[in-house]
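Record pair follows.
FIRST:
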Amino acid sequence: MIRRLLLVAATTLGVVAVMPAAQAQAIPQCRSGYTCLYQWYQDAAHTVFAGYLSVDCRGNSASSGTRTRYLEFNQARCNDL
């Protein structure tokens, strides 16, 4: 009985060891020739704003606030500069 219990415990620990940690949400890349706006919210309903990152057509960026798991991403093609 104890051997069986140890086998189950060792198997469980082995499975947990090879499982990836909680996957981080990858943010979309702002492609060349586009202006992008990333807006993060505190909740899934996007009612409480948390922060932003904007990237303009020249690659300049501005940001404020915090990043959370609730992201809204928008992009628009740049006109020829």
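SECOND:
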Amino acid sequence: MPKRILQGTVVSDTNEKTVVVSVERRFTHPIMKKTVRRSKKYHAHDEANSAKVGDVVQIEECAPISKNKRWTLVNPA
């Protein structure tokens, strides 16, 4: 089964070797038929501490690294 890859914006790079990425998804509301935007934050492993706040990056799911980290930084998108 292929690993999921998501694209989002780095919102925090304060932690060592960790970035927080906000990923936005859009969908049509089933009743109102209006486009709705929902965002979710993911903690991703950044071995080189290369990503900075505001960067658009891609993250890939991986085995658990810590309590919150289940994603790893693939490359700047």
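COMMENT: The chain has a mean pLDDT of 95.
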